[in-house]
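hiii so my PI (J.) wants the whole complex modelled not just the main chain, which honestly fair. so below is everything: two entries, each one labled with what it is. i double checked the lines twice but i was tired so who knows lol
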Amino acid sequence: MRRFMRPLIVGLVLLILLALPVTAVLARSYFLSPTWQPAQEQPIAFPHTTHAQLPQLECEYCHRGVSEDAYAGMPALELCMDCHQAIATDREEIQTLIEHWENNDPVNWERVHQMPDHVHFVHSSHVNYGFDCAECHGDMENEIDYAEQVRDLRMGDCIDCHKEYGAPTDCSVCHY
Amino acid sequence: MSARWGMVIDLDRCTGCQACVVACQAENNIPINTEDIFHQRRAIEWIRVERYWEGEYPNVKARYIPIPCMHCAQAPCESVCPVYATYQTTQGINMQIYNRCIGTRYCAVNCPWHVRFFNYWEPKWPESLKHQLNPHVSVRSRGVMEKCTFCVQRIVRTEQEAQVEGREVEDGEFTTACAQACPTDAIVFGDLDDPDSRVAQMASDTDRGYQLLSGLGTDPAVLYLKKIDPDATDEIDGIGPDGTRD
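here's the output for the full assembly
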């Protein structure tokens, strides 16, 4: 019995030593994944659902570049003020907005979606292919009040989808 | 989407003005080459104009030849990369993937045309030039190779616009920065697989065409048209303009 113990213990120790870096790498990949990160707090709490449901705004009403340009774009303060000069002006958040407007001071929205470095994503070609915004951004109309990243959006995620829909997977399609 | 991009450079039209070099620097966020850097032989020029002197004084002629990446179909640089950072796209472009590159510089060593460049330092621009950087092109950091991409950002953009509008990319709809800047139209860029494209017709309708170092068998996608110069043949063959030997 004794003679089996030593190789067994050595084997076990080796296994644990090997498993540690593997676990560390997996844990890193999991905890550093963009979807795991808490959503950045915005300077003004903007509830997407309210805007999509009550005045029934289309996504493109504010994110105007989405079907023509690489970037969906953020609306200028003028667009907010079109309505909020009159609507809900007694609320705290709207008063902050008006303050920005009166001081000629643009709102510094925090970036929500983290993409890997050195990648060029183009909104227009994806939207024109027929994808719904919700495909990547989640159901901003009914479920997600405050924007957060719901999809991984790392290269594996991109490639899976490109393969599924027969889109090119040349490196140069995104990396240049 | 299926195209084989290529270029024809007519040396009879080239005046050696370097407009292509400047246009390329501006389009592709290429770091500024100072005199020091030239002396160190670390200058980055995705396209360069080589100058040769021909003949003896007083009959000296300057010969110019612009040299971009040849985008070889059988590229010697690709097979030596240990991390597959350089590869052939399905459209015949020899691409450098910056985030894969680990900077071994094997590719630059194996390139017979010396058109691959290494970033020895983090690129710097004076404050006044920061706003002229092209947002559609990555700024390469220290430690990676870079090279001519046939302005792939323009290709991708045009293809996406065509897709949005539901049509095919037309010949001449876009061109590379060097071809666009060329005042004498010496550089023509387009799809070699489309028989109606200007570049394919120029490549087929000529007996002046040649490839640089074609003997290596790398099948470059850049075709040169040699200079039409009656005097030059004189010097070589000893035949005068009237056809008599002197």
